[in-house]
Amino acid sequence: MSLSDSEFFTGLIRERKGIEGKIRSSASDGRRIPIIRDDTATLLEILVSQKKPEKILEFGTAIGYSAIIMAKASDCVKSIDTVEIDPDMVIEARKNIENASLSNIIHVIAGDAAEVASCLSGSYDMIFLDSAKSQYVRMYEDLKRLLPKGGLLVCDNVIYYGKVYDEPENSPHKQRTIVANMRDFLKQMFEDEEMRSVIADVGDGLAISEKL
Ligand SMILES: C[S@@+](CC[C@H](N)C(=O)[O-])C[C@H]1O[C@@H](n2cnc3c(N)ncnc32)[C@H](O)[C@@H]1O
């Protein structure tokens, strides 16, 4: 049993208000856009407010919710580049970001996460990975290249509804590749002596890794 199975623990989470509350409701209003869960959002805010990253890179913008959460978590955040493949999401994210008065900080890049990662240069103090799970394993070297020492790599959905606990063969056929690739990604990250990694049991599993 995990915390999210408990009515008591999920009942402790406060509802979000203001623009964040509105975006959260619009994501669930009949459309089921998979944005980060409430406890994941709070842990991201704590990571940003403690780490104080100036530059953040995100893969998987959806409608801009997690980018807005991170931008508002600390005044130290000067820029967030966030990558999204779906053109409709790009339009909606830009609208939400403008409504949150954060267009000067959050820049939505339209494109494929792995392709964009391979083209980016410079460095980011924190990277939040929340796009196509199967790609994480082949994005790993680029993600590491973009992180300075002390930089944080944060990845959502690493438990993938509990399926990553188990061997890929035990998952439904359609999900086997995702499960196998996620396991390979986690092995790669945990075996890497240049990274210090842990998985927090929040939301659908949040891996947090620091470059040493
Ligand atoms: C889980 S949602 C992101 C949620 C967002 N981070 C939030 O919490 O507000 C995943 C997003 O990744 C996007 N995506 C899927 N494959 C992608 C790819 N190859 N490159 C970039 N984005 C991708 C999807 O269109 C979707 O909007």
Any overview of this molecule?
This protein is α/β, with parallel strands linked by helices and 212 residues long. The protein has a single domain (3-211), classed as Vaccinia Virus protein VP39 (Rossmann fold, 3-Layer(aba) Sandwich). Helices cover 40% and strands 17% of the residues. The chain has eight helices and seven strands, in the order H-H-H-E-H-E-H-E-H-E-H-E-H-E-E. It has helices at 7-11, 18-28, 38-51, 65-73, 87-99, 113-119, 136-145, 176-191, and strands at residues 55-59, 79-84, 106-110, 126-129, 152-156, 195-200, 206-211. Strands 3-2-1-4-5-7-6 form a seven-stranded mixed sheet, sandwiched between helices. A hairpin with a 5-residue loop joins strand 6 (195-200) and strand 7. Helix 6 runs parallel beside helix 7 (136-145) and helix 7 (136-145) packs parallel to helix 8 (176-191). The chain starts with 6 loop residues before the first helix and ends with a strand. The mean pLDDT is 94. Residues 34-36, 59-60, 62, 65-66, 83-86, 89, 112-113, 130-132, 135 line the site of S-adenosylmethionine.
